[in-house]
Specification:
153 residues, alpha+beta
Length: 153
């Protein structure tokens, strides 16, 4: 009888450890800096994934410029783009603000709420970053951000 109790406890322990392992969220960070003649952009992408599936991406971006018109132009573009994406696909939360000589954006895309299937239909190039179950993969996210020049850790 003690033998069966020991086996049962071992099986339960293995199942618990397996469930903890597959539910662990991993964070991968990709960064890029781009210097132009009249502004600098620094972007950080924090990719949260479970297994090989992206659960969310947080984008923190800072644009620095002494020219207020440039910052205002980027602010308008970003607000319009993020607003449209939120309306069309959901899952977007964002904040865009100018503070002194910097435009700071913080965008979070929650892929549990994001309509990825619709987004992929509208953006065919995204097909190479998703799996057969239409999920944004960690490898796909890293490949996407690396294609823009970012370095991922």
């Amino acid at each position: 009888m003690k033998k069966y109790v020991g086996i049962a406890i071992g099986i339960v322990l293995i199942i618990v450890l397996f469930l903890i392992f597959i539910n662990t969220t991993k964070v991968t960070t990709c960064k890029i800096s781009n210097k132009q003649s009249n502004y600098d952009i620094t972007s950080t992408y924090s990719i949260k994934s479970r297994g090989d599936v992206v659960k969310s991406v947080e984008v923190n971006q800072t644009i620095t410029s002494k020219e207020k018109d440039i910052l205002k132009s980027f602010e308008e573009q970003y607000k319009n783009q993020y607003s449209l994406n939120k309306k069309l696909y959901g899952g977007y939360n964002y904040e865009v603000k100018i503070n002194n000589n910097k435009l700071v954006t913080k965008v979070t895309i929650d892929y549990d709420d994001f309509k990825l299937d619709k987004f992929v239909k509208d953006n065919k190039a995204m097909k190479k970053y998703i799996n057969k179950d239409n999920e944004f993969t960690l490898e796909g996210a890293k490949k996407l951000y690396k294609s823009t020049g970012a370095k991922c850790e």
